[in-house]
Amino acid sequence: MSAPTLGVVTVVDAVTADLRTRILAGDLEPGRPLGEVDTAAHYGVARPTVRAAIEALVSAGLLTRGTHKSARVTVLTADDIADVYTTREHIESEVVRQLALAAAVVPDADAANDAIRALADAPAHEVVDLDMRFHLSLIDAVGSIRTSRIYGLLADEMRLCMSRTQRADLLSVADITAEHAALLSRIAAGDAEGAVSVLREHLGRARTRLVAHVAAGG
Fold this sequence. Notes:
- The chain has two domains: 11-73, Winged helix-like DNA-binding domain superfamily/Winged helix DNA-binding domain (Arc Repressor Mutant, subunit A, Orthogonal Bundle), CATH 1.10.10.10; 78-215, GntR ligand-binding domain-like (Four Helix Bundle (Hemerythrin (Met), subunit A), Up-down Bundle).
- It is 70% helix and 3% strand.
- The chain contains ten helices and three strands; from the N terminus they run αβααββααααααα.
- The protein has helices at residues 11-25, 36-43, 47-60, 78-101, 107-117, 124-141, 145-153, 155-167, 173-188, 192-215; strands at 33-34, 63-64, 71-73.
- A hairpin with a 6-residue loop joins β2 and β3.
- α1 crosses α3 and α5 packs antiparallel against α9 (173-188).
- The longest helix is centred in the middle third of the chain and has 24 residues, at 78-101.
- Residues 1-7 have low confidence and may be disordered.
């Protein structure tokens, strides 16, 4: 019997993952420059490794970089946030409509929501990870590789918005899980329009509160 193939995490992947975690946790605040020399020294790696990690995070939307300038942690404006949530709504509305037309049951989404309920005073990034798992479970349940791929391109910008929402305490865990449960109930009941309505209210509430928070200087 052949040995199983194990995934290998490269140094670039490890640095990218740690920078992503620090950005989403707020340890690297919006607008903070991320110089290659200092970052390479922090991780004890070569500059090309850091450069590759930074480029990956620029592509994901977590960092921005102008011509011949150091990368900076992305500063989300109110317009950016509104656009991220509107784009999410376009994709997820059709997904939940299709799932509801099939009266689908999505065990992975149920499990993610149960895990969120178990979080009492957990750090914001833990709530965000599970919240994203819930929504990704719905996307993947449609069974379209391309839909999942397109949604994945927005994932880090979604996480950035959701992290700010959680750190500012704009939505409680109880609110999130109740809205998730209502959405799954409508889907399982075959209520396509009801499911879309619950989803839009769910995303719309987060968008409205975060936009107002950022517009007020939060």
